[in-house]
Amino acid sequence: MFKLLKTEGAARRGEFTCAHGTVQTPVFMNVGTQAAIKGALSAEDLMNIGCQVELSNTYHLHVRPGDKLIKEFGGLHKFMNWERPILTDSGGFQVFSLAKMRKIKEEGVYFNSHIDGRKIFMGPEESMQIQSNLGSTIAMAFDECPSSVADRKYIENSVARTTRWLQRCKDEMARLNSLEDTINKNQMLFAINQGGILEDVRIEHAKIISEMDLDGYALGGLAVGESHEDMYRIIEATVPYLPVEKPTYLMGVGTPQNILEAVERGVDFFDCVMPSRNARHGNLFTWHGKMNLLYLLLIVLAVAFLTDNYIPSMGSEGPLALRFLREYVLIGIICLSLSTTKHVVCKRNHYSWHPLNEVTVLFFGIFVTMIPALLFLNAHATELGLRSSTQFFFATGTLSSVLDNTPTALAFHTIAMGLA
Questions:
Q1: DSSP conformation letters of 1-63
Q2: How confident is the model at residue 99 (pLDDT cuts 50, 70, 90)?
């Protein structure tokens, strides 16, 4: 049951009550494709970060370890030690991604496993049976996800078939939920709206599936190659034709910006593998854009450990090439960061060479103008009255309060050399 609490324009705040608890919307669902989040996150970790709904994939769990095995464990909740709601994707998108290994017919889809190549058949009934074995809170209807660049006739035929498959999914779920050995007899069914980036096809399909009175409605076939502008246009055109009293789910989205744009257009549910995938690669999303922590970590490690304390040959007695190993590594990390960062990211973060050029010129000027001063200090060191370590301590502290540390160190090192 979905309860609408507040609206602001098309954006909405609600509560979705289901067999495994109440979900506050808008909500982002963390994706554990095979009943686990990659990157060593446990179910307890998900609870601690406030994950309300976990999403797993029907196709992947069917192939490995097998939905029947999971049913023997008591369902997906017990299998992964998770008490909150779980949504299972129908497998339709995975079939879409296996374009070279599939054959779509009215009864369903014939395709080959991406793991061992064995032939698999999946239709609406099979998808519902697998999801029933998994015992998820929400099951997604089996659909075809047509390419956004497919021609109009193909998309229209595909959407018509998806509608027929939806009715079969609804009938099969009603049958499965009535069986004695079904794990979750209150399993919900969400329909999926398709139609590529054709507004009229999307709207007509939304009207048809809305009449079936299902538990929720999803927008599928977006974020699969079309522009963000096209995605926002389709969301804005389609959502008004879906039931207001049911939750709306944008599948496979996405970035923080995508989510905010979609919330503004009336979407309640989101999912994407991107947050955990980016985290595994050292990326962090901030209000100032995406940060790559991996390069920052490499710089910290280089500064901390590439010294003669850990590599004795980097000392003054070692080969000349090794004395500047740390500097070589730091320059390499900088070049790697520049070469792997997209130009659009640099532009968005207002990156330019101007500050670096300014600092380079400034330091060059400082050291050039210091040479006469250093020569003078070396020649007249004995006349400056600095003899004891206490005098050096207070003198360096006083000078470093108004001068950069490096020029200060050079100045007093030169005086000490003149006293030797």
A1: -EEEEEEETTEEEEEEEETTEEEEESEEEEE-TTSSBTTTB-HHHHHHTT---EEEEHHHHHH
A2: low
Contact (CB, 8 A) for 215 and 138 = yes
Question: 67, 89, 215, 268: which is the annotated catalytic residue?
Answer: 89
Where does 220-356 show beta strands of DSSP type E? 248-250, 269-272, 283-286, 289-292
The neighbouring-strand residues paired with 244 are none
Mean pLDDT of 370-374: 86
How confident is residue 237, by pLDDT bands cut at 50, 70 and 90? very high
Catalytic, 404? Answer: no
The confidence score (pLDDT) of residue 279 equals 84
Short-list 263, 264, 334, 258, CA closest to 295: 334
Kindly report the number of other CB atoms within 10 A of residue 319's CB atom: 9
Q: How far apart are CA 137 and CA 86, in angstroms?
A: 5
Q: Which of 39-53, 136-150, 313-327 has the lowest mean pLDDT?
A: 313-327
* 197 and 148 Cβ atoms separated by less than 8 Å: yes
User: What is the secondary structure of 59-98 as a DSSP string?
Assistant: HHHHHTT-HHHHHHTTSHHHHHT--S-EEEE-SHHHHHHT
Q: What is the mean pLDDT of residues 202-206?
A: 98
Q: What is the mean pLDDT of residues 391-412?
A: 83
Give the β-pairing of 216-219 and 248-250. Answer: parallel
Mean pLDDT of 25-34: 95
- Per the model's pLDDT, the better-predicted residue between 324 and 190 turns out to be 190
Catalytic residue among 67, 143, 268, 271: 271
Return mean pLDDT, the chain: 91
Q: How many CB atoms lie within 10 A of CB 2?
A: 20
> Active-site residue 89, yes or no?
yes
Determine the Cα–Cα distance for residues 170 and 189; give it in Å rounded to an integer.
7
DSSP state of 177: H
Pick from 280, 274, 281: which is nearest to 55 by CA? 274
More confident residue, 335 or 132: 132
pLDDT mean over 124-137: 98
Q: Would you say 139 and 217 are in contact if contact means Cβ atoms under 8 Å apart?
A: no
Rounded to a whole number of angstroms, the CA Rg of the chain reads: 31
The pTM assigned to this predicted structure is: 0.75
CB distance 268 to 284 below 8 Å: no
Q: Identify any residues that bridge with 346 across adjacent strands, giving them in sequence order.
A: none
Residue closest to 95 by CA, chosen among 142, 134, 30: 142
b/e map of 231-242 (b: 16 or more CB within 10 Å)? bbbbbbbbbebb
